[in-house]
Specification:
By secondary structure, the protein is an alpha+beta fold. It is built from 15 helices and 19 strands. It has two domains: 128 residues, Nucleic acid-binding proteins (OB fold (Dihydrolipoamide Acetyltransferase, E2P), Beta Barrel), CATH 2.40.50.140; 259 residues, Bira Bifunctional Protein, Domain 2 (BirA Bifunctional Protein, domain 2, 2-Layer Sandwich). The two termini are 24 Å apart. 36% of the residues are buried.
């Protein structure tokens, strides 16, 4: 069916006195409630609305597959039951049209729950033909670039985002119930920080300055703690100008929370409670399938000491690591990394030897201090920092520190970072004098936690790619032919 023929049908509708794009419709029911509670709806009149994805004719009987946000239901139309205007409408309908149907609930001879239409209304005439492979659209680039087509025909894709919305609601309810205050911090920042990452750069015309899309909201949330708020959080969009792979998208969502007078031990308990409660809420179980695994979210989560675990597996002690030693390890371990300094080598060793074994939720604790410029040194070992990351199914899902509150020590760590930046590590954030000034006024003992909403959603929807759980992931723009 060509676009030209659809436009002809559009004009026919108007010629019949039908507005193909009306203002509203009385949608009273959804497909799933009728299908799941047939006994309550049998013989009763319902009103549904959705997209007609398939139309079939068998003699004087028409069948339409109508899909709404909840699922699919079959519509039947036949002379003597369906009014004449609706039957005429069906003759010029196409797959993809959005319609409203009013009629009685029944079952076919084969037992399929259906709506016997009395009236059918055109709610939006589709002027484009659905892709040939719209049943389970298989071209991933098309699915991600034109996600509305994916949602249109793929019920599982819609379910992923219903689950994502439930995850966000649970997280907010969990934190609100513990008296956290939700804030919004700047997305455009004059100085970015809070994570090692390359930023996106833009220009602020009114202020005549370059600004950066935030890589994290950490430093602004800490300013709120310094200002006197004791429990703060933000569900934030953050941006990192990095490669795209199965667990990374340059635009991503996380929740960061900070609480005064707490340390990272407290947040291990809070993270367990939040994640375990979320899983039980969604699945009524502590165990869920994920790819080839069964993941057990039972508390307490396993704890692994990073430096000790790596030394046990490789004999390498990374608690202290010079850049010269890091370059030697890069050669001996055949690490494929661009920057061969201590930070990146330690990170690569972790990815190679430890991360793949972290299937059930695991806290990896006590990082080398040179990797944690915003964290306090471990209270009994200054070579380490009070930091943990949460891993599930071999994927990092969260990060936490006992936050560094000593402004003099923080300045030293920023200076060490700045040295690495001048030596070519482009992921190191710039020196942030404004943040240093803020903690010089005094910051209470504080702990923070960041959780990746995208990666949690991946795991809780049984997806291996982050693009499946981001509604509009980053893709290369489509080149369109210019109209002549």
């Amino acid at each position: 069916m060509t676009e030209e023929s659809r436009i002809e049908k559009l004009e026919k509708l108007r010629g019949m006195g039908i507005n193909p794009y009306p203002y509203a419709y009385s949608q009273k029911n959804h497909a799933n409630e009728i299908v799941e509670d047939y006994a309550a709806f049998e013989g009763k009149t319902v009103g549904v609305a959705g997209r007609a994805l398939r139309l079939r004719r068998m003699g004087k009987l028409y069948f339409i597959d109508l899909v709404d946000i909840t699922g699919k239901i079959q519509v039947m139309a036949l002379s003597g039951v369906t009014d004449e205007n609706s039957l005429n409408l069906i003759e010029i309908m196409d797959a993809g049209d959005i319609i409203g149907v009013s009629g009685g609930v029944t079952k076919t001879k084969r037992g399929e729950i259906s709506i016997e239409a009395k009236t059918i209304s055109m709610l939006a005439k589709s002027l484009r033909t659905l892709p040939e492979k719209f049943h389970g659209l298989s071209d991933t680039e098309t699915r991600y670039r034109k996600r509305y087509l994916d949602f249109m025909v793929n019920h599982d894709a819609r379910k992923f985002f219903i689950t994502r919305a439930k995850i966000l609601k649970y997280v907010r309810d969990f934190l609100d119930g513990r008296d956290y205050l939700e804030f919004e911090t700047p997305i455009l920042q004059p100085t970015y920080g809070g994570a090692n990452a390359k930023p996106f750069i833009t220009h602020h015309n009114a202020l005549e300055s370059d600004f950066y899309l935030r890589v994290a909201d950490e430093l602004y949330l800490k300013r709120l703690i310094i200002g006197g708020f004791e429990k703060v959080y933000e569900v934030s969009k953050d941006f990192r100008n990095e490669d795209i792979d199965s667990t990374h998208n340059p635009e991503f969502t996380q929740v960061e929370l900070y609480e005064a007078y707490k340390d990272y031990n407290y947040y291990m308990g809070l993270a367990e409670e939040l994640i375990n409660g979320l899983v039980v809420k969604l699945f009524s179980s502590e165990k869920i399938p994920y790819l080839e695994y069964e993941i057990d979210f039972k508390k307490p989560f396993k704890r692994v000491r990073w430096v000790d675990e790596l030394k046990k597996k490789t004999g390498i002690d990374i608690s202290e690591l010079s850049d010269d030693e890091a370059q030697e390890i890069t050669r001996s371990e055949h690490l494929d990394i661009a920057m061969k300094n201590a930070y990146h080598v330690a990170d690569a060793l972790f990815d190679k030897y430890i991360k793949p074994d972290l299937i059930n939720p695991t806290f990896v604790i006590d990082f080398p201090s040179y990797m944690c410029p915003l964290a306090k040194d471990k209270r009994d070992n200054v070579k380490l920092s009070e930091r943990f990351e949460i891993f599930i199914a071999g994927r990092e899902a969260g990060n936490s520190y006992s936050e560094l509150t000593d402004p003099i020590e923080q300045r030293k760590k920023f200076e060490a970072q700045d040295k690495e930046r001048r030596m070519g590590d482009s992921e190191v954030p710039p020196f942030d004098e404004d943040f240093l000034e803020s903690i010089e006024y005094g910051m209470p003992p504080t702990a923070g936690l960041g959780l990746s909403i995208d990666r949690l959603t991946m795991i809780l929807t049984n997806n291996s790619s982050i693009k499946e759980v981001i509604a509009f992931p980053s893709v290369k723009p489509e080149r369109r032919k210019e109209k002549e």
